[in-house]
Amino acid sequence: MSADAKHSSPSRSSRSERGSGLIETVVLLGSTVLLVWGGLYVGSYSGRFDASEFSEVPHGRPTKPVAVSADPNAAVLKAGLKGYNNTCVACHQADGNGNPSLNIPPLAGSDWVLADAPNRIVRIVLHGLGGPVKVKDTVWSGGAMNPWLKTADNPAGLTPDEIAATLSYVRNSWGNKASLVSTEQVAAILKETEKRSDPWTEQELLKVPLAAGAPAMAALTPDQLKLALKALPADALEALLKDVKK
Ligand code: HEC
Fold it and tell me: Which pTM does this prediction carry?
C-alpha cells in the first residue's frame, strides 16, 4: 500500500503538472488575445484621447450654424467691378495685368495701387497720368492715361462715388489687399486739386503725401519746416538732432 502510494504519487503529480501547464497556456493565450483586442479597441475608439471626444456634447451632433452677416463691403466691391468694366478693363484688362504690348502697366501688385493711402491713385483717375512711370520695377513709358472724372466734356467718366468704388475694387482684386476708398476721400482730393486740368507726372505724384493730413517734408517751405520743428516737444527735438549728428 505504501509501495503503491510511493509508485502512484509521482504519476499523479506529473499528471497534475501537465494539467497546470495546460491551464497556464490557456490563461496566457487568453490574456494575450484580450490584451491585443483591448489595444486594438482603444486604438480604434479612443479618439486619440482628444478632449472633445469625451465632452458632454456627443461627437457628431450637428452644431448650430453660425449666422454670417452680409459683408458690407460686398456692395461697394460689386459697384466697383461695374465701374472697372465700364472704364478701365479695356486697357488694364480683367486680370489687372495691363497690356505690355500697348505700354499699359499692371494694377495687380502695383505699389501705386497698394499704397497705404489712395491719395495718388485718386489723382491719377481724376486727371490722368503722362510720362514715364515705374510700376513693379519696370519703367513704363510711351503710354498716357486720360482723366476719368465725369464732366460736361467727359460724360463717359465716373462720379466721385463711382471712382471710390472702382478704386476700392482695384485695391482688393487679383491678390491686392488695401483699404477701401471712400467718396469723402475722393471729394476732398477733388476740392484740393480743383484748379488742375493737366495730367499728373510721376515726379509730381511722388511729392503727394500718402499719410492723410501729414504734409510731406519735401513739399514744405523752409519757413513751414521751421514751424513744424518748433512744434515738436523738446525731448523729441533733442532725439532728432542727436540722430542727425550721427
Ligand atoms: C486708354 C487706356 C487706359 C484706361 C481706359 C485706363 N488706364 Fe490707367 N493707365 C493707362 C496707362 C497707359 C498708364 C501709364 C501712364 C504713363 O505711362 O504715364 C496708366 C496708369 C495707371 C495707374 C498707375 C500705374 C499702375 O499701373 O499702378 C493706375 C493706378 C491706373 N492707371 C488706374 C486706372 C483706373 C482705375 C482706370 C479706370 C477708371 C484706368 N486706369 C483706365 C491706361 C489706361
Answer: 0.66
Same domain assignment for residues 9 and 98: no
Mutate to test the pocket of ligand 1, among 92, 148, 172, 204 (most ligand atoms within 8 A of CB): 92
pLDDT in tens, 30-61: 777 777 666 666 566 665 555 555 555 555 55
Q: Looking at residue 116, what is its pLDDT? A: 93
Identify the pLDDT of residue 29. 79
Task: Please name which of 88, 198, 98 lies closest in space to residue 138, comparing C-alpha atoms.
Answer: 98
Residue with cell 456627443: 58
Helix ranges (H only) for 128-221 are 160-171, 183-192, 202-206
Sign of CA dihedral 236, 217, 184, 79: negative
Residues touching ligand 1 (Cβ under 6 Å) are: 87-88, 90-92, 103-107, 110, 112-113, 121, 124-125, 129-131, 133, 135, 140-141, 143-145, 148, 166-167, 170
Mean pLDDT taken over the chain: 81
Q: Does 205 share its domain with 84? A: yes
Q: Which atom belonging to ligand 1 lies closest to the Cα atom of 202?
A: 18
Pair 85, 34 in one domain: no
Q: Is residue 226, in this structure, part of any structural domain at all?
A: no
Atom of ligand 1 nearest to the CA of 83: 38
Query: Which protein residue's CA is at the shortest distance from atom 2 of ligand 1?
Result: 91
Helix (H) or strand (E) holding 86: helix 72-87
